[in-house]
Design goal:
The complex is a heterodimer of chains A (225) and B (553).
Chain A: E1 5-10, E2 13-18, H1 23-29, E3 49-54, E4 61-64, E5 74-78, H2 100-104, H3 116-120, H4 127-136, H5 139-146, H6 154-158, H7 165-180, H8 185-195, H9 200-208, H10 211-219
Helix pairs in contact in A: 4-5, 4-7, 5-7
Chain B: H1 7-20, H2 30-40, E1 49-51, E2 61-63, H3 64-70, E3 88-95, H4 99-110, E4 115-118, H5 127-130, E5 135-136, H6 145-155, H7 162-182, E6 207-208, H8 214-228, E7 232-234, E8 237-244, E9 250-257, E10 263-273, H9 297-304, E11 309-310, E12 315-322, H10 336-339, E13 343-345, H11 359-372, E14 377-379, E15 382-388, H12 390-396, H13 400-404, H14 406-413, E16 424-433, E17 436-438, E18 450-452, E19 457-458, H15 469-491, H16 501-512, H17 541-552
The chains are: A alpha+beta (225), B alpha/beta (553).
The structure holds flavin-adenine dinucleotide and FE2/S2 (inorganic) cluster.
Chain lengths: 225, 553
């Protein structure tokens, strides 16, 4: 084998691919065309959740295929879909009580604190801790801990209690954003002003201005420091 | 981990850091800006564009990569393809499940329309999810829609369509409130005051971030709301053509299930294209920050159906794409990094541009620094300049980066680069389609009953979009198009018979020009497999067979 190549196993089959590739690029290099299992290619969508182990190890590891460089001896499989259950709700009518999350997702009470979810998170989120916070109805904590979740779903694949963590976190965050966090006071004011059409004359005037005049205004506009 | 050969340059950057901390590079005058753009902006390279030779906007210029898709045949032969009976018949068909499509679905269903959304990947596998920096809206005391308007016009080279800009700035505050109510968690102070910041080209701090997951946070809330409302949707299904009746109304689309290859049609009273941008065309060989499905399909479909284009000759190159490590080449380093005070410096640790000039100007300055002045850092894939991120924590204190830029931090630390200690290497990347399909302030195109919303459309941003205005754009015009298309659908009692008549003339024009029949579009997906594996996509095999048959005749 050439030194610039690595040996990887895609669903058990061996391929040799250039060493510098990400898992995603390596799978493509092996000749696969992604339909599922690839979304943003930038670490934001969670479509490329991947489980692997090294050839001589029993230890399962996880990765986002688009953000992880291959290593020699990786045994790879993607999990492009997981049948997670989402509770349907009407966000406007939910109330941020201690029980709300447990009512939406009663299975969170079955958490045995095994920590598998936290161990498996490719974003290094303390998943188990936010589930515990959700059980206590501590919305703020759930928000803080879960904000960087990209919903790849790996946590749910490992949970013995069949919790779909990312949906629990999403519900908690939406409830927090809609009902606990204060609405922007300056926005109230602005919306009122918009209703009164306070800015329309100024705007209409700009719309009627010549490009020359606009250019002058633009060049001389003051800039907030 | 940086390679040994970067060390010398890294040392110089470190050596000048302290002295630079409070130094601001002077802003360029209007004349200096124009001169810089003309000489170094990729859009100004004449040989990279050509006039489109077919269709309604014939004669307009666009990059070769886009022209190749416009000057291409449909996968369907209009003379032989038997249009299957519609699998679904709905009031409003929405094509594309990013921010614009989902926002449109929400307002359309609020008006009581029967809505169906189809999308190529999953809902939210879209450019919207990748937006990091923030969303603009004039909602603070020292700001106003008029000030926002002027910023947008200036950024766009004063070529923006005024009515569209008015809609954008006027709907801004309302959209932010709508997002708050959907549960979007903006960066706020205890009392609810938005912690808004500057973006390139803003004269007020009106960018609203959600850490550096702004688009992801907005998209997941929109998607969740969409699912809560039980709106119908189909994923992994691409639209490959629009359907029109014999008087020219858009009446639906032809789609292909990308897993089974099934080809089917949807009949609709009104249709909204919200297919997003075109980063994956890799114009002039640039890497891109865009998602996997950003292949410009909507522009192709609408154009073949007779919709007019505007400013498809301007592409936005984001000044700060990743230049190292090559595994994440072209991925975005959000402008927020510069907003927080990281400076751009060359290999010698010298500043060469004010960081928050408009994107086209900053990108041009970086290209000049690397290509003409040869003061960049050389890498195996080209080169780049430093974005001096440790300055952020010198200014705002330890921990700022992990708190405000967790996605960025994560992206680099995975490759052994700690951006709190070391700068990151950057070079422009293809980022945004400034122009697109022309529409009015309700998203209507010149093709009756065909709407567009979001990045696929053009006009509102003129020739250059400012950061934070496209998330606003997709929500403002998505909502407007959804509402309007739903209202309009109520006026339509019977949908006309679907045809592909519009392709007949288009194809014969192509034939006359001698364009080979092997050139087909839309692209649907970029093909990153090695040459020997490339070819027709398996899910198009039904259509390929059909085409083979045609070639035999
Ligand atoms: C990395 C990055 C960072 C950004 N940061 C910011 C920012 O900070 N602020 C800001 O305002 N803007 C930002 N933008 C720009 C902004 O995110 C996008 O312009 C905007 O979200 C586009 O939304 P959209 O709904 O029009 O398109 P998208 O969100 O891309 O959605 C289009 C959808 O249509 C689907 N589709 C495409 N073709 C077809 C087809 N043939 N059939 C069916 N479906 C199809 C796509 O797969 C996709 O799901 C950023 C963009 C990127 C890429
Ligand atoms: S493809 Fe989106 S996270 Fe990897």
């Amino acid at each position: 084998m050439m030194k610039d190549f690595a040996r990887i196993y895609i669903m058990g089959k061996e391929y040799q691919v250039p060493r510098h590739l990400t898992i995603l690029q390596a799978i493509e290099h092996a000749g696969f065309l992604f339909v599922r299992g690839c979304g943003c290619r930038g670490g934001f969508c969670g479509a490329c959740a991947t489980v692997y182990r090294m050839r001589d190890s029993y230890k399962l590891k996880v990765a986002l295929a688009c953000q992880t460089k291959i290593e020699d001896g990786m045994y790879l499989a993607q999990i492009p879909f997981y049948p997670g259950n989402k509770a349907e709700h009407n966000i406007a009518s939910l109330t941020p009580t201690t029980e709300t999350l447990c009512m939406l997702y009663p299975e969170i009470m079955r958490c045995i604190s095994c920590g598998s979810c936290s161990k498996v998170c490719p974003q290094d989120i303390k998943v188990m801790d936010y589930i515990n916070a959700a059980i206590r109805g501590d919305y703020k904590k759930v928000v803080e801990l879960s904000f960087d979740c990209i919903m790849c779903g790996l946590c749910a694949t490992r949970c013995p209690a069949e919790i779909v963590h990312y949906y629990v976190a999403l519900a908690a965050r939406r409830i927090y954003g809609a009902h606990i966090m204060k609405k922007a006071p300056h926005l109230d004011k602005r919306l009122q002003e918009m209703k009164e059409k306070k800015f329309d004359p100024e705007l209409e005037k700009l719309m009627r201005s010549s490009v020359e005049d606009l250019k002058k205004l633009y060049a001389s506009r003051d800039i907030e420091p | 981990m940086y390679p040994q050969e970067f060390y010398e340059s890294l040392k110089r950057v470190e050596a000048t850091r302290k002295a630079r901390l409070n130094q601001v590079f002077p802003r360029l005058s209007m004349e200096e800006r124009s001169a810089l753009l003309e000489k170094f902006h990729p859009d100004y390279k004449k040989e990279t564009m050509r006039e489109i030779s077919v269709g309604i906007s014939k004669g307009e210029k666009t990059p070769h990569e886009f022209a190749d898709l416009l000057e291409a045949y449909s996968y369907l032969d209009p003379k032989r393809f038997v249009i299957p009976a519609p699998k679904y018949e709905v009031d409003v068909l929405i094509i594309g499940g990013g921010g614009a499509g989902v926002a449109a679905a929400l307002t359309a269903s609020e008006v009581g329309a029967d809505v169906l959304l189809v999308t190529k990947l999953r809902i939210g596998d879209a450019n919207t999810t990748m937006a990091q920096g923030g969303i603009q809206a004039a909602d603070k005391e020292n700001d106003s829609p008029a000030i926002h308007y002027l910023d947008i016009m200036g950024g766009g080279g004063f070529k923006n369509i005024p009515e569209l800009v008015r809609a954008l700035v006027n709907d801004g505050p309302e959209v932010i409130r709508w997002l708050e109510e959907l549960g979007v968690i903006f960066d706020k102070a205890e009392d609810g005051t938005m912690l808004s910041i500057h973006g390139g080209g803003t004269s007020r701090k009106r960018m609203h971030p959600c850490r550096d997951y702004t688009g992801a946070e907005i998209m997941r809330c929109l998607k969740d709301e969409f699912l809560d409302r039980k709106i119908k949707y189909i994923e992994y299904t691409a639209s490959i053509e629009l359907l029109k009746d014999n008087v020219g109304n858009c009446v639906g689309a032809v789609l292909v299930n990308m897993e089974t290859g099934e080809v089917f049609t949807i009949k609709s009273k009104t249709t909204i294209l919200a297919t997003g941008g075109a980063g994956r065309l890799h114009i002039q060989g640039f890497p891109t920050s865009n998602h996997y499905g950003a292949t410009g399909d909507g522009v192709v479909l609408a154009y073949r159906a007779g919709a007019k284009l505007i400013y498809l000759d301007t592409i936005q190159y984001h000044p700060t794409g990743v230049a190292f490590p090559e595994q994440i080449l072209g991925q975005l380093i959000t402008e927020k990094v510069r907003g927080l005070g990281a400076q751009l410096v060359n290999a010698y640790g010298e500043q060469f541009i004010y960081e928050l000039e408009t994107r086209d100007v900053v990108a041009s300055a970086i290209i000049r620094e690397v290509q003409e002045r040869q003061k960049g850092v050389v890498t195996s894939t080209g080169g780049g300049v430093w974005l001096d991120t440790p300055l952020i924590e010198m200014k705002f204190g330890k921990g700022t980066i992990q708190k405000q830029l967790p996605a960025m931090y994560r992206q680099f630390i995975k490759f052994g680069i700690d951006m709190t200690q070391e700068p990151v290497l950057t070079y422009p990347t293809q980022h945004y389609q400034n122009g697109g399909i022309l529409c009015n302030e309700f998203g209507e195109t010149n093709v009756p009953n065909l709407y567009v919303a979001g990045e696929v459309s053009g006009g509102v941003h003129g020739r250059n979009r400012l950061m934070g205005n496209s998330l606003l754009d997709v929500l403002v015009f998505g909502r407007r198009a959804g509402r309007h298309a739903a209202e309009k659908s109520k006026e339509i009692s019977k949908i006309g018979e679907p045809t592909l008549l519009h392709l007949i003339d288009y194809h014969s024009e192509l034939k006359k020009l001698g364009i080979p029949e092997s050139r087909r579009s839309p692209m649907i997906l970029p093909d990153y497999r090695p040459q020997e594996f490339r070819g027709k996509f398996h899910f198009l095999s039904k259509l390929t067979e059909f085409n083979a048959e045609r070639n035999n005749i």
